[in-house]
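Lay summary. Proteins are chains of building blocks that fold into shapes, and those shapes determine what they do. In this project we predict the shape from the chain. Here is one chain we studied, written as its sequence of building blocks.
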Amino acid sequence: MKIFPAIDLRDGKVVRLLKGDYDQMTVYGDDPVAYAKEFEAKGAEFLHVVDLDGAKDGDTPNFQVVKRLAAETGLKVEIGGGIRSEETIKRYIDAGVYRVILGTVAVKEPEFTTEMIRKYKEKIAVGVDISERHVAIHGWKEVSQITVDEIFEKLADDGVSCIICTDISKDGAMQGTNQALYKELSEKYPVDIVASGGVSSMADVAALLDMGVYGAIIGKAIYNGAIDLQKAIALAKSIEQADVFAALFDEGGAK
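And here is the predicted shape, written in a compact code that computers can read:
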């Protein structure tokens, strides 16, 4: 399983929201690159970044910060928040971003989303934010009539490679992640699913590993020390290595 430490950006600062509420924001620091380098030093290979200003307003006010994160670290940076045009997608990819996450536009402009998935392939992921099994949009300020199953079926048909799924009710609450939801989705749909929201203990990480989820995003639990990032990454890698050894044994020794 891939571990994605998270950096949420607002006004260029590292912040976390509680359940997506912009009025319940904690500021952790004003140097996102320093945080990213610290994650990298602990063994991280990926970085999940959300431009909260962009998610709310539909633009890219933190673009230069994201560009620095990609240029000044060796991390595979994925970015979401306010990405609603091909111009923005290309701008981020040209800046060295590993993957661009479409969110609101996947609900508001499904044809455009289909086109971008088919054109840019693995460079496109879709963020599906869930509130009581419906998809939330516009920085979680609005809940659509689209259900989680409807959008997952559509995106799977479109050939999306990765869906980042957040249970808003769990996000930032430090009360555990929605294991039942991720187990259900990973069993029903043939896409890589990254679990987000409420991953707040090593037990959560272990449970997601056990069910075979592709990845887990960890935010607040890293910042408050509830999860040791280095240990979480080591746990994920130990499972991957065990799978490799098992495959080698099957190919060689088991014969």
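What the prediction tells us: The chain has one domain: 2-251.
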